[in-house]
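TEACHING EXERCISE
Course module: macromolecular assemblies
Task: Read the component lines below, then compare them to the predicted structure of the full complex.
Student: A.B.
Group: 4
Components provided:
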Amino acid sequence: MFGESFGGIFAPGLTWLFGAPGAALAYCAAGALIALPERSWRTPRLGRVILAGLGLFLAGMAVLQAWPGRGFWQGISGGQPGTLAGMVQTMAQTSQPRVISDLVSGFGVFTGRHGFAVNLVAVVALGVIGVAFILGRRTVTRPALAAFLALCLADWVLVEDMGIFGGLGTDPNSMIPMALLAAGGYLAVTRAPAAVPAAAEPAAAGPDTIGTGPGVSWRERLRPAAVRQSVATASLGTMISAGAIAVILLGAAPMAAAQASPAASTILAQAVDGASVPVDIPAPGFTLTDQHGRQVPLSGLRGKVVLLTFLDPVCVTDCPLIAQEFRQAGQLLGGNARRVELVAVDVNPLYNEVAYTQAFDRQEGLASVPEWLYLTGSPGRLRPVYRAYGVASQTAPGGAMLAHNDVAFVIDQAGHLRQELNFDPGPGTAATKSSFAAELADAATGLLGAS
Amino acid sequence: MKAPRRAVGALALAVAILAAGCGSASRPAQAGGSSAVPLSLATAVTGPGAIWAAVPMGAASGANQFWQLFMLPAGAARWSLQTPPDIATNGALILAGQAGQGITVGERPSLSLTFSAITTTRNGGRTWATLPPASGLADVPDALAAAPDGGLIALGGSQQVTIARPGGGWTTLTTRRALAATPATRACALTGLTAAAYTAAGSPMMAGTCGRAGTAGIFSYAGGTWHQATPLLPASLAGQHVRVLRLARTGAGDVALLQAGTGPSATLLAAWTSDGGQRWRLSPAFRLGGAYAESVSFGDSGATAVVLSSHRGETLAGPGAPWRALPPLPAGRTVTLALPAGETTDALAATGGSLTVWQLRPSAAAWARTQAIKVPIQYGSSS
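Instructor-supplied answer key:
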């Protein structure tokens, strides 16, 4: 879960419908429940807690689903598939049986045409089911469970990919374990023994069980003596269960808190790819040709902070996104932008003509950005630069684009490398990629402020 | 129990209303009939030194569909994979035959890439060089063509036509709107451009769809002006709207494949010219019977092969020859026909990452499997 920045649920563009947080969350929760001692299941309380917790989670997901600006309400936006339609269409491309990909693809088209209505149904369904689970009344939870199972099934078939059947997935996605959790909670409520005979619980009958038995209020349970007793008598399963829940909360809380922070983008970017690596060595020099045909030595940029990356001008995925991050970083810098140079080096030695860097600039709206330089050169000039900066590229067969690592470097005004940033935008659609613009702008601002 | 049931009923009603709302929303207008079905960009180009075939593989569409380029050297028996390196081919490959074992390939825009990279090889794919990128090529198999001197003509997605002299950059030659305003296209009432080509003498040719029935829109450019280069169609097609599906230069001159009409009565006919469009020879009309042409390939002698949506194939041996039905095509998600010399026909059947080559010899009644190629597709590399 941590490896995926908690399933990316708080990243822009992701939603419970896509399986975020991933099935790992449901497995962790199920593991925690299984680890609980058997006596926990003898009353309906645990079932109610499960359903209420799931209800809270679904209600939260409904809020995220309805939140303006996350792009879920637009089927088509600016001529392009919206967040929901785009992700569904991407999932349809995953290697999987054709009948399934056709279903997902068809629903992607439908979502593109009726994005608002699809999202409205999702928001209403999540909200109503969530509230019903929170209320916990049997008469309400039964139809809510049926609706939830139907929603999970529909989402599993129509939205989530079945990469597990195509050799690319590692699990059957989140809807099945989610549905099982809900069913488990419901059964715990409805099938629990009506009452536990006192004789069956000898440990609970003695005077040392003050404040921990069934029917004891939470206030009494939280008294120091009761807490001490609970800890002292806790089983290994209880401890493991508590640990699992603590791990979930430890991960979720900072990510949720990050949403309220103005530096959320930086925090999320670092959650995806780790913090930047601080370095302090002279930046390896080079002289390459910019998009206007001029020779540009790196040393000629002294006195400015240089944000440097490596981009493939014919890349179809990450490089355009990274270029946009650079452009946005320039905008975030405001008046400081003229003291910063945004520099990319062509990482594709086959497509190394200036005509290609120019075409890329036009495509990305960078042609009119004064502080933007897209440098290229002959393969003989480019390859030493790749080596010096640790940029590895590899020709991939079968019509795939050049494979290369996504990195960025921060070079100070004196020509020293100060930071190396992993710039892999992560999986997902364009709308779900992490933002690095704030991280770049922060790094440049820090160096400008220090000078 | 009643209150929750009412709540559930209300919820179901709300969902039903929403679903009904979804269903009643307006749909984009559908262009009419089979005439709107676009021709696949899968095709084979036959030159004197080699045959090149562009084949969609991997997924059926989207980011995991990767177009592959295969080559069969003249006189050889086995195809080889020669997909241009270092660029994602999700958007399709458009082929422009060059001399010898040369080919120029335009990569159509896909995903975040909005322009078309152009690569070329002169040695059967052993080494590749880049040419200046073109604005996004149109979604038609003849959006890129090569002149005898190596110059290029490109039809862009926004219906602009650009040319590149050997060693030079792209300059605009015309646009659909400008071409439609010339006297040469007046009789046609040009509504759209569908193909670009060169004549054997090196003059640009453009083809498109006419708004006026019974007229084929083919035009050549010489002496700084556009000229009508239209074949005279049989009187039986006088009332039919004609669309030029393909226009390409072969070793025997230029060949065009036309579709007249739509629906079950639609017909295909090929037209050949060796003098830049002054005189044409027409094939007999082939009645489509409700099917439509999925992909079209040409041989070096002007032979034509058509894959139909009914999973059948038809060929024309060359100017003046009759249509010949092929045996049922081999199984495959896509089948692309290629026409080596000697009246044999190769069928390249692709499913996922597997390509199977089937051959039909002139006197044979069935396809014979001759080769299988497994393509190492990098699924997920473009997403």
